[in-house]
Amino acid sequence: MTPQDQIIVPLDVSTQEEAIQLVDLLPDVLFWKVGLELFVSAGPAILSELKARQKKVFLDLKLHDIPNTMLGACRAAAGYGIDLLTVHGAAGRHALIGLPMAATEGAARTGVLPPKVIGVTLLTSLDSRALAFELRVPIELPEYVLQLALLARDSGLAGTVCSAQEAANLRRVCGDDFLLVCPGIRPAWSEAGDQRRSLTPAEAIQAGANYLVIGRPITSAAQPLEAYHRICDELSSLV
User: Fold this and answer.
1) Cys bridge to 56: 31, 44, 92, 138, which one at CB 3.0-4.6 A?
2) 62 is a catalytic site residue
3) CATH code: domain of residue 165
4) Each residue of 127-141: pLDDT tens digit?
């Protein structure tokens, strides 16, 4: 894949109007992420707008509910023609195992290709201390992330969302065909913000990541398009 295929820019805004302004500001961006805030605000219309502009869409809703509800939501979301869809791995095997088929069924109803369903392991805003003392999970963070990634793989999901710091180990254990989507990526020249477990774009790709979710280093830059191309150039130099 080219850097343009690998970099996903989040539309972390509140309205469709703001989202379209950002898309117009960054016309070279191929892959956009629609998260919970924007989807709740704008609904499926923002997905239709992005697809009309020939963009790829990562619908990051992190579905987490009882199995029947997750199946229905996945089936409905797949009908929008999205490319990636997130669910929480912590929902458990019974909830995860039917999701790829549900996505295929939902996509077939509207004549689009089904999205790749990927499981969230642990949010990058959480660290080992939060896992142990707030969530009371009695195993180490790398082991917990690996367990949820393996659960996603063994349930038939296409990949997982993980910190880039866990990417190398997950790539080694889960295999080359398992997608790794890494959020919270921060170039060396940008601020870390609220991300606790992050790497630079080049480090993440070298660790085995397939896709990089890069937000504020691009969207909050003085020259967003210039920042985007700077990251693309850095990744191109790895070839």
Assistant:
1) 31
2) yes
3) 3.20.20.70
4) 899 999 998 989 998
